[in-house]
Amino acid sequence: MELIARKSSSKRLLFIYNFNYRNEATSIYSKKLVDHYKNPRNLGELNNFNALGEVRNEKCGDITYFYLRIEFSNGVKIIKDISFQTFGCAFSVASSSILTELVKGKSIDFAKKIEKEDIASALEVPIKSSMHGIELAKKALEDALNSFIKSEQLL
Q1: Cα-Cα end-to-end distance for the chain
Q2: Strand residue runs (E) in the chain
Q3: What domains lie within the chain, and their CATH numbers?
Q4: How far from 150 is each of 52, 153, 155, CA to CA, in Å?
Q5: Quick check: 121 and 134 in contact, CB under 8 A?
Q6: Distance of CA 131 to the CA centre of its chain
Q7: How far is 64 from 33, CA to CA, in rounded Å?
Q8: Which residue of 23, 67, 77, 153 pairs with 46 in a disulfide if CB–CB is 3.0 to 4.6 A?
Q9: 51: how many CB neighbours lie within 10 A of its CB?
Q10: Model confidence pLDDT, tens digit, residues 23-45
Q11: Is the pTM of this model over 0.85?
């Protein structure tokens, strides 16, 4: 893995990891993780969200935001749309990306039951190697779900 520096449109320096698969047997970066890092799904701020979750990892500085649009369908609360913004490492970005795919279109009860092991399995990585990124994504989703539940109670 090599570190590549590029200038963004805002003239800030971005650091991007160029992943190399020469030694896949010992790599902690699965092809699925790299794919979700390089091509994140549901990335960006959702315009018409009704739930927002935010979590910061104080140790490494990674930050994740989850934006959800939750609607009622046949008396069930469904995550109709979801997006995220993660400012952090490959594990954090990929964990957030795959988590959006796991819960999009599902009930909030289903989303609450997602375990760290489910996210690691979906990324095809050992849970120990990716724990901080998985925890960040899971906590941000939980924060968004809790904010929705609290807002409902105020109505």
Answers
A1: 51
A2: 2-7, 13-18, 51-56, 63-73, 76-87
A3: 29-154 (3.90.1010.10)
A4: 11, 5, 9
A5: no
A6: 13
A7: 17
A8: 67
A9: 24
A10: 444 467 889 999 999 999 999 99
A11: no
